[in-house]
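Components:
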Amino acid sequence: MQDYLVVVSVGLAMGTLGRLYLLRVDYRQYPSYPQGYMVHLALGFIAAFLGAVAIPALVAKEYTAVTFLALAAQQFREIRDMERESLKHIEDTELVPRGAAYVEDIAKAFESRNYLAMLTALVTSAAVQFFKNSVLGIFTGGALILLLSYFTRRKRIQDIATVRPAKIHFQGSILCIENIKVMNVGHPDSRKIFIEKGLAVMIEPKDDDARATLANIGQRQAIAHDVAALLGVKRDVNEVDFMPLVRIELDTGRVGLVIVPMEKDMESLIEAVKMVPVLESARRKPLKSKAGRSASD
Amino acid sequence: MENIGVKEVILAVVTLNGNQPASGVPVFYARDEAERDRIAAHLARILSGMVHDLENGSYIIVRH
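Structure:
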């Protein structure tokens, strides 16, 4: 009995620690308050507990206990729904919405991290059980956390594209970023503000895969949201002219972003764009297919 | 239809052209460009719309 207690508690501790570690990595976007952390830590704890008891249950020949793991997986699917629902509800209160693709991406990440906590606890408790050594178990768990977080790491815009400053100009009343026509800005005052305070960058895809990814509307909305969140945006509910816009150049697949930020700082803008995650739902790999490869040359 | 789709609506027209007929959408006639710009700015604020320039003397206020 005493043995099992050690096995389960080491597994539980490592699983929860894994969840905490990943919560820390993701602090930039969400959650931002202790309540949010609490929810995810509690669920991570439960997941870790389920993972940790599986091996001792197996050893004690309590096979029914193991089936609970399957049941738990079912339960954790709810987490994705929970995150999606809550993020969708607050979408209306964002000056620059995240967009459905970004919401889905965040929700999915939260779900997968619970499985990660469960897996870490499972492997850790297995190690403790078989090596009869808790220190070895802790090392195994730690290594697994690092390994898994390395493999579930997302790509960022800087991995698939280069970002450089671009010039804003007007063709009559049409706002242009180099040769991308973005939109018609009717009011002369708004045009003046765009010229004086607006910033634009050009995002140039590195290959055809990147081009297809950047063309995704969800991906472009995610860029607009993240940039607006980091640099601020001169925009209000009744002031719609300065919505940050991300538009594509049809000939080359380059993508232009225009924003009127609170902080006019090109360096930080480029940095912010580079750090935007590539969304899972937006990732395309036409170059992996024969048709895509032959179309690219 | 959350991300794309036709949801733009012309809320009003502000024009210098006295011959612009009013049909189906409110039309505001302005005496000169300064007045047109001012009316357009007010309407955009009130209606949470955006001013677009058709470059023929008419502005339209559009809800996006």
